[in-house]
Design goal:
Elements: E1 4-13, E2 21-26, H1 31-40, H2 54-61, E3 67-73, H3 75-82, H4 87-104, E4 108-117
Antiparallel strand pairs: 1-2, 1-4, 3-4
Helix pairs in contact: 3-4
């Protein structure tokens, strides 16, 4: 079972050829709830894109533990994920989606980069 879950929201402006930027970091405890929901959805192990932001790349690079369960989700994927999480996490994950949709309203793409550390 993972000891940590890393959840980062990255954004980039839609109007310019811009790189992704780390926008926010989110927490969900215990991480096993998130991992189980990703498997049930099924949204687990979708991998990470090659164009990660510098911030997120650095976090992964300097991680001491074994990284597992790399996946990338959209705000829309969070609705699917929420259906598989315990009720106690619903408000938190819906807030993540609202954050991403607010950025979308400002002409920014948003995605969630997730991994676990064992």
């Amino acid at each position: 079972m993972p000891s940590l879950a890393y959840i980062f929201c990255e954004t980039r402006p839609r109007t310019a050829a811009a790189e992704w930027t780390g926008e926010a970091r989110f927490l969900l405890d215990p991480p096993g709830d998130l991992l189980s929901a990703l498997h049930a959805a099924p949204l687990h192990d979708l991998g990470h894109p090659d164009d990660l932001s510098v911030q997120v790349s650095a976090e992964a690079l300097f991680e001491d533990g074994e990284i597992t369960g790399r996946t990338t989700l959209s705000a829309a994927d969070l609705a699917t994920l929420t259906a598989h999480l315990p009720d106690a996490h619903h408000a938190r994950v819906l807030a993540w989606a609202a954050f991403a949709y607010a950025l979308d309203g400002q002409d920014h793409d948003a995605r969630f980069i997730i991994w676990f550390v064992e």
